[in-house]
Amino acid sequence: ICLGIFLRVYQFNSLPAGLFMDEVNMAVDTKTLVENGTDQYGNRFPFTFEDVTDFKLPVYIYLSAIVYKIFGPHVFTIRVVALLASIGTIFSLGYLAKILFDKNKFLPLLAMSVLSISPFAIHFARIAYETTLATFFLTIFLIALVKVFRGEKRLFWFILGSTMAVLSTYTYPGTRFTVPVFTFLIFIISLFWGFEIGRAHV
Asked: What contacts 95, CB < 8 A, 6 or more positions away?
């Protein structure tokens, strides 16, 4: 896990060198949003950001704008949201595995370790990629969903889960499909087998 975090942060501001096209567009939108309250096309506090080839959802760019306001214009500024989300996902995935399989003490550590050193995960932690942030929101949503179905502090977990679901769907469009699917699957598991029964046999 420590190795995975190190590989994410090592020379973070210079590797990979420069910015990809999507990152350039997000960096320009972030800069104009902080300085003028508009995107690069002059739309004031937009809900979607027009790109050269497509449209970007707002959450990643608005979070990057907060970082820009604090640290100013750096490569680090546009990428740090993905970095923090990637590191956070290591631990949220481990906790999700723990609450689903709490009789197996090895599985959460295995899940965290595999994600930590995954070349795919490391690569996308080092660039401004919205999916990395959406994945973090999705794992928190799944944790909250399991807690709600188990009846543990339902109001708190319902509010947190709902917030994460909304944030994920306005971070990357793919989660608009995965959130309902995971909700349905966990509901079916809870309805027909029950988490308590499942946990007893792990």
From this structure: 108, 143
